[in-house]
C-alpha cells in the first residue's frame, strides 16, 4: 500500500515567514476575523487555487480557530500582523485528509502562501463582549452571538447565512460555555484558554 516507503508526516504545520511588516499594531489570535489572500499548491507544484487570480479576485474573510477553515490554517495563522505573508506546509491530517476535496487528491500535503490583509475583532475578543451583550446582563445568549455574527458578516459585505451562523454559534458555545448553562458568562468569555 505505502509504495513511497517514506515515513508518515507528523501532523504539524511548517511555517515560513515570507514577509513581516515593519509596524505591527496587533497580532492575530484565536477568534479574530482575518482577511486573507491565498495561493494553494499541491506537492507536485500544481497551483490548485489562487484568490489573486481566480473567481472575483478578492481576498476572503474567515474566523481564526473555529474550524471554519482547515486545521492547518487555524494553527498556522496565529500571531500574524496585518501585511504579513507566510508559507504554510500542511500535512493531510490538518488539511483534507484521506478523502481529498475537489482538485485535491487524497492524502495531499498542501503548500499555501497566505497574506493577511486585515485583522478584526471576532466574536471572541474582549472588545466585542459588550457589543454582543445586547440586554446588558453580562452573559451572552446564542441569539446574541448569532446576531453579532450576522452584523459582522453584513459589515464585510457578506449576505447573512443562518445555517452557517448557527453552526458557528454551536462551535463557539461548545468551547466557551464551560458549565453548559446555555450562556457564555463574562468570566467564561474573558478567561479563555488559549490553546496553541
Ligand atoms: Ca445578554
Ligand atoms: Ca455558561
UniProtKB/TrEMBL annotation:
PPIase FKBP-type domain residues: 31-120
Sample GO molecular function, one term: peptidyl-prolyl cis-trans isomerase activity
Domain of life per record: Eukaryota
Domain EF-hand: 120-155, 164-196
Group of enzyme by EC: isomerase
The protein's Enzyme Commission number: 5.2.1.8
Keywords: Calcium, Disulfide bond, Endoplasmic reticulum, Glycoprotein, Isomerase, Metal-binding, Repeat, Rotamase, Signal
Keyword Disulfide bond among UniProt keywords: yes
GO CC term (a single one): endoplasmic reticulum
InterPro entries associated with the record: EF-hand-dom_pair, EF_Hand_1_Ca_BS, EF_hand_dom, PPIase_dom_sf, PPIase_FKBP, PPIase_FKBP_dom
Catalyzed chemical reaction(s): [protein]-peptidylproline (omega=180) = [protein]-peptidylproline (omega=0)
Gene3D superfamilies: 3.10.50.40, EF-hand
Keyword Disulfide bond: yes
Reported function: PPIase which accelerates the folding of proteins during protein synthesis. Has a preference for substrates containing 4-hydroxylproline modifications, including type III collagen. May also target type VI and type X collagens.
Subunit structure: Monomer. Homodimer. Interacts with type III, type IV and type X collagens.
Protein name per the record: peptidylprolyl isomerase
Amino acid at each position: 500500500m505505502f509504495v513511497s516507503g517514506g515515513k508518515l508526516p507528523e501532523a504539524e504545520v511548517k511555517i515560513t515567514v515570507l514577509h513581516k511588516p515593519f509596524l505591527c499594531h496587533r497580532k492575530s489570535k484565536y477568534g479574530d476575523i482575518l482577511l486573507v489572500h491565498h495561493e494553494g499548491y499541491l506537492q507536485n507544484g500544481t497551483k490548485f487555487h489562487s484568490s489573486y487570480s481566480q473567481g472575483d479576485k478578492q481576498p476572503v474573510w474567515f474566523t481564526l480557530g473555529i474550524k471554519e477553515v482547515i486545521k492547518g490554517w487555524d494553527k498556522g495563522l496565529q500571531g500574524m500582523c496585518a501585511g504579513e505573508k507566510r508559507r504554510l506546509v500542511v500535512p493531510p491530517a490538518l488539511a483534507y485528509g484521506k478523502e481529498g476535496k475537489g482538485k485535491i487528491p487524497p492524502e495531499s500535503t498542501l503548500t499555501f502562501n497566505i497574506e493577511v490583509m486585515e485583522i478584526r475583532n471576532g466574536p471572541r475578543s474582549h472588545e466585542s463582549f459588550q457589543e454582543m451583550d445586547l440586554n446588558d446582563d453580562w452573559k451572552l445568549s446564542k441569539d446574541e452571538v448569532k446576531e453579532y455574527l450576522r452584523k459582522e458578516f453584513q459589515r464585510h459585505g457578506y449576505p447573512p447565512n443562518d445555517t452557517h451562523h448557527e453552526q458557528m454559534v454551536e462551535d463557539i458555545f461548545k468551547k466557551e460555555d464551560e458549565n453548559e448553562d446555555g450562556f457564555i458568562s463574562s468570566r467564561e468569555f474573558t478567561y479563555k484558554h488559549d490553546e496553541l
